[in-house]
Structure formats: C-alpha cells, structure tokens
Amino acid sequence: MKKLFALLVVLQCLGTLALAQATGAMITPPKVMVIIREVEKPGKTAAHEKWETGWPRAFAKANWPMHYIGASSLTGEPRALFFEPYESMAAWEKDSKAMDKNSTLSAANEALAEKDGEYLSEIRTVACTYMPELSYHPEVPVKGTQVFMVYSIAVKPGHEDQFEDARKAIVAAHQKANLPDHFSVYHIVAGSPGGHYLLFLLMQSLSEEDDFATMHGKGYHDALGDEGQKKMADFANQGTESTEAQLFRFNPKMSYPSKAWVDADPEFWSAKPAAMAKPMAKKDAEKK
C-alpha cells in the first residue's frame, strides 16, 4: 500500500479528506489514516503514474482486503499522495505483517519499489488520527467526489489547546448557521515534527471554492460571535507556526479502491491503467 505528508491551512474552516472505507455510497473518515507523500522528479510525473499501476494490479490479483486511494497534485510541486485507512494503529501493524509474510507479494513489491525510486526525489510517511470533535458533517458521497483541498497547520509548542478551542468554535458556528460544507481534522501523531494538523475538504468541483466566501459570510460570522472570532484571531497571532493549502485530484490509475467505491461511481473509479509488462505487488518497508 502507499503514501504521504501533505500540507496546509486557512484556519477558517475547511477540510475533509475522509479517505476511509466507503459505507454504502458515502466516504467516512477512518480512525487512523496513513498518508504517503511522493515528490516526483521534474518530467517524471507520467512515467511515475504508469509505474504506480503495478501495485493496484498486484493487490487485485491477491484479492488483498485493505484498500488505498492515490491522488495527484494540482498545485505546488509535482507529487502524489496515497491514503490508507485503518480502524486502529494495531490494524495497520497487522496489515503490514500480513504483507511481509506473503513472500510473493513481498518479493514483487521490493522490485517495484526499487524502480519507483527512479522517479522520486522525496518520500515521507505519516500516521494520523481522526479528531471527530473538531470535524463537521464529515461524510460525503463517493459518486462525483474527485478533487480535494488539504490544509496543514503547524502549531507552536504549548498552543495545541488553543488550536482545539478555535476549531471547536468554528464547528459550533457551522452548526448554528447550518452551513452545507463538510470538513475533517486529523492530528499527525508520527512521521513529522509535533504539533501538525491536517484539514481536508472533499469537493465534486473546484467551483465550490468560488462559493466559499459567500457561504461563510455574515450568517457564519454572526454565528461565530465576538468570542469565536477572538479565539480564531488569538490562535492565528499566537499559536500558528505555519500554514499551507494545496489542491489534489484523485487518481484512479494509482488507486486500489474498494468494490463499494467502484460500484458507487464506476465511470470514474473503473478507469483502467495502461498495461504493464509485469504486474507486481506493493509495499516497501521503507514506506511503511
């Protein structure tokens, strides 16, 4: 399976990369999400995408029970993200050990991973835990959901409680104003310096970004109230180390989606990758 570390934020309120197993035709946030970020060398994006198709083919052949979703960057440096959903850290460990015990899968993966490195300048893996109390209406339909914004916030040491208070004020304002957007918040617990949070916003179209200011206009600010706006301003001034925002598009060719996802939106998720001479399996101890 595969890959990440992504990025970014405008504390304002976005964010949901609820990349989990689908419940029916909905995407719901997993309790634990492993994200692998692969930065591609200049001019190697197309070749990297083609090589990545080896892993979904191998997992499908092995009928592997766990699934992952790949995405390609629309902004920033050329890179790919891979999201693996798990019920717990123990479930991630169990999946990794099972793959290690599969000699055919492991051998093929090692060969695939070695070649994969020729297209990349950097790889980073992080493990994140879901924060439901800081999220708002996180479930979104699988059908039609193809792009997402991901925000990353680096919080200064000692200001984690301040960050959570500001986010709770945002959630309360969304509930009071009954806003139609959806966002999920994750805390990176391993793989990066402390105090990093990710916020994900899944979209069916980038036109949703055009409507953001209108959606979060007077009604939202009234719901936030003076206290909520002060919490946001204080955190921005006192507790924020850095923020960043980037856009991505899901990439079916680099994904191993569940049957529920494919059935929910077959036109998008059934995209067939280009044929490879030798399909191989995926998993690299270095990337896990």
Q: Describe it for me?
A:
By secondary structure, the chain is an alpha+beta fold. It has a single domain, classed as Alpha-Beta Plaits (2-Layer Sandwich). The protein is 35% helix and 26% strand. The strands form two sheets. It has an eight-stranded antiparallel β-sheet. The protein has a three-stranded antiparallel β-sheet with strand order 1-2-7, with no helix packed on it. Strand 4 and strand 5 form a beta hairpin. The chain starts with 21 loop residues before the first strand and ends in a 19-residue tail after the last helix.
In brief:
The protein contains ten helices and eleven strands. By secondary structure, it is of the alpha+beta class. A hairpin with a 5-residue loop joins strand 4 and strand 5 (79-86).
